[in-house]
Structures are given as structure tokens and as C-alpha cells.
Specification:
The chain has 122 residues and is an alpha/beta fold. It has a single domain, classed as 2-Layer Sandwich (Transcription Regulator spoIIAA), CATH 3.30.750.24. The chain has four helices and seven strands; from the N terminus they run E-E-E-H-E-E-H-E-H-E-H. Belongs to the anti-sigma-factor antagonist family. This is Anti-sigma factor antagonist. InterPro entries: Anti-sigma_ant, STAS_dom, STAS_dom_sf. GO terms for molecular function: anti-sigma factor antagonist activity.
Length: 122
């Protein structure tokens, strides 16, 4: 399995790396996902969906912060992925980010995995 990064974008507080693993698109945001950085995540998610990937895996292991704008980006991607017969899988969330998902109830609408490897099992 190739785990090489095939693309990345960065803006101050957020770096987003993207790659393909099998039939999954893997997006790894590192840093702070908020109003100012949300487009850095939104764009590759929409690009993968536009290329026909309906199974998106978001590796959250390096995501240190996520506000409501970030949640909305993920929720929007989830709706589009599900409409295409797939879904968004969240992997390896840090406790501080997992807590935001739990408090808002958003964790109930995503498939959440403890590890990236678990999320990549189809």
C-alpha cells in the first residue's frame, strides 16, 4: 500500500496532505481547522468527490483544533459522499477534537475509527 503524500496545501495554522489508498481518498489536516483555514480542507475533499471518490478518510491524528466551520466542512463532505454511495470516515482523533464532536453530537453521524489503519479497512 502506497502511503506517499501526493499533494499538500498550507496556510499558516493548517497543513493538509492528500493521497489515494486503494479506493479511499485520505486527507490529513494538521494544525487548526477554523473559519480562516477551512477552505484548505474543503477544496481537496470536494476535488476527490469530483473525481469520483465516494469514500473519504480524514486522518485526524494531527488535527489540534476544530471549530464549527470545520465541522460544517466535514458535514458537507459527508452529505455529498453519502449521496454518491459512500461516506466520510474519521480516524485517530485527538481527545480535544473528539470532545468537540461529542459535545455537538456530530460524532453520531460519522463513522469514527481509533486508527487510520482501521479506517482504511473496507
Amino acid at each position: 500500500m502506497d502511503r506517499g503524500t501526493v499533494g499538500s496545501a498550507q496556510s499558516g495554522r493548517l497543513l493538509v496532505e492528500v493521497r489515494q489508498e486503494g479506493t479511499s481518498a485520505v486527507v490529513t489536516p494538521a494544525g487548526e481547522l477554523d473559519h480562516y483555514t477551512a477552505d484548505l480542507l474543503r477544496e481537496p475533499l470536494e476535488e476527490f468527490l469530483g473525481r469520483g471518490f465516494s469514500r473519504l478518510v480524514v486522518d485526524c491524528s494531527q488535527l489540534e483544533f476544530c471549530d464549527s466551520t470545520g465541522l460544517n466542512v466535514l458535514l458537507g463532505a459527508r452529505l455529498k459522499a453519502e449521496a454518491a454511495g459512500g461516506g466520510v470516515h474519521l480516524a485517530a482523533m485527538l481527545p480535544v477534537v473528539a470532545r468537540v464532536f461529542e459535545i455537538t453530537g456530530v460524532d453520531a453521524v460519522f463513522t469514527v475509527h481509533d486508527t487510520l489503519d482501521a479506517a482504511l479497512v473496507e
